[in-house]
Amino acid sequence: xxxxxxxxxxxxxxxxxxxxxxxxxxxxxxxxxxxxxxxxxxxxxxxxxxxxxxxxxxxxxxxxxxxxxxxxxxxxxxxxxxxxxxxxxxxxxxxxxxxxxxxxxxxxxxxxxxxxxxxxxxxxxxxxxxxxxxxxxxxxxxxxxxxxxxxxxxxxxxxxxxxxxxxxxxxxxxxxxxxxxxxxxxxxxxxxxxxxxxxxxxxxxxxxxxxxxxxxxxxxxxxxxxxxxxxxxxxxxxxxxxxxxxxxxxxxxxxxxxxxxxxxxxxxxxxxxxxxxxxxxxxxxxxxxxxxxxxxxxxxxxxxxxxxxxxxxxxxxxxxxxxxxxxxxxxxxxxxxxxxxxxxxxxxxxxxxxxxxxxxxxxxxxxxxxxxxxxxxxxxxxxxxxxxxxxxxxxxxxxxxxxxxxxxxxxxxxxxxxxxxxxxxxxxxxxxxxxxxxxxxxxxxxxxxxxxxxxxxxxxxxxxxxxxxxxxxxxxxxxxxxxxxxxxxxxxxxxxxxxxxxxxxxxxxxxxxxxxxxxxxxxxxxxxxxxxxxxxxxxxxxxxxxxxxxxxxxxxxxxxxxxxxxxxxxxxxxxxxxxxxxxxxxxxxxxxxxxxxxxxxxxxxxxxxxxxxxxxxxxxxxxxxxxxxxxxxxxxxxxxxxxxxxxxxxxxxxxxxxxxxxxxxxxxxxxxxxxxxxxxxxxxxxxxxxxxxxxxxxxxxxxxxxxxxxxx
Length: 712
Known about the structure:
Elements: H1 2-33, E1 45-49, E2 52-55, H2 56-72, H3 79-106, H4 112-120, H5 126-131, H6 142-155, H7 158-185, H8 192-203, E3 204-214, H9 227-236, E4 242-243, E5 246-255, H10 260-272, H11 274-279, H12 283-289, E6 300-301, H13 310-315, E7 321-327, E8 330-342, E9 345-354, E10 356-358, E11 365-367, H14 371-386, H15 391-398, H16 402-405, E12 410-415, H17 421-429, E13 435-440, E14 443-453, E15 456-467, H18 472-488, H19 492-506, E16 510-516, E17 522-523, E18 527-528, H20 530-538, E19 544-550, E20 553-563, E21 566-567, H21 570-594, H22 600-607, E22 611-618, H23 631-637, E23 651-652, E24 656-667, H24 675-701, E25 704-706
Helix pairs in contact: 2-3, 3-7, 6-7, 9-21
């Protein structure tokens, strides 16, 4: 006991210090693993744009908004959609910060008076205009809108204040963007002299004689491109070889998709529903009881219905059911609920007395007025129309459908199945001249049928589907095969050997996926898995990634590339650069063989090539010619200094080396063009491109740090 006591007394303090140090190291490592530092306090910073931070919570809110907007547009969920929402939110936030920073530098402020004009002036935001326009007079009540905003700012709850501040911030940013865009677009100019010069050049036509030596006459094996050659080329063109951080993998995928037995099970499931589906009196209630909420209870022209076996479905007649049949990854039943004669397309106009409007930021429906108030207003407007009021005037004053208000409420060439079912059925089952009030999810529509085209049979069809899903046995078989493969593929050499054996024995091929970003989820050829991408980035070069489910496959991966942000390596750039350098080296061999150029015929003789002619060359290169796409040859052909001369130096083109003599250069009659209209068209084209290009230029000049991969 005394010995143990002596050891404890002697080493107890030392052990305490060691344990304490271990705990400190553990905590520090944990902090760094979670994307931050104990000393910087940046554990919630998800990115930086020129030093301005993007915080995790604010960014998460943006991602949620994007997700809601995508769902409102009917886009499906899943990892791919989540990644898309994340990328859209990131792009939006980076652009916002860059625009705010640049506006501050340029002094593009939005003062209090200007903001008030934006909110309460002649053209208020749509949200305010709809909420504070008197339905009887059609006039915007600016004072009421201002009182409401001031009340929210002073007396509203935290959520209301946050919403109004976000709305105002967005309005200010939009105005700053308009000012910034105006700075750039007003500087765009296409002078008249430039357009006249271009017109003159387009009227020129050249005739040349030439000797051509294609690069294909020299074998690729006759020239060698080294890594040093590629590096030299990269050094001279660094801007063309910038790269973002990415990784590449080889992988073997084991199919976990449903097999024939799984398909038979799905067929039987849908077949079991057929008796109840046949006898259902309320088809909508039956479908909802089966979890089907996308039934379109409206008539659709047979030509617009695009489903498998549609001709067979049509033949069973109204009240009857067809199926089961395969539709994509489902077994389906189709029941014709009703049929009718109807036109192909309809021209209509309408006034929408809306009960809801759409929030432009979130895409969500926001209440506008209650149903009873909307119905009362719709009845009043309908009576006014019947008594001779002008339809166009009422559309401008009262319609909440901004998409058609500027066009008198008109929708032309409307095909069936495009509108809400009740609206659809009214316009396709009533004759020209009919007027009525139709209720939809958006409110009450005062509808008038203006014209119809064609004739067709319309069908109202209900569908019941059951997915063809892999059974647990199918899934287990794929998982076991992947696990067995991974046990053999313990390193890069073993992975490649096992993959080759698997291909020979079972025909399962090894595949590759390149340029996977750290924030990515999509694996080309497989599908989306954020978890799998994270594991790729946790692994080192040559490491094997253990089996994981990606889409319909169990996947074993091998990390084959690790590309850091910066400039491409020669190995990465070789695929792009090597063909260029091969042609350069071949061009030197050919030009050395040509030697000093005296006459075209002498060059043809020494090269054992024929003299060719091209007599209708155009400077814009748009007309086909014997030369092909050779910008350097075209440029030489229209240089007046070369007229009736053999150009003393061989031209290394894109497809070969050329010795050229310019025989003639003439002006031809040019098509008469309205230069003012041409200048206007070019200006509009440049203006449309300028906004994207300006933000892109700011991005390229910015220092952007992306830490999302540590949080998502």
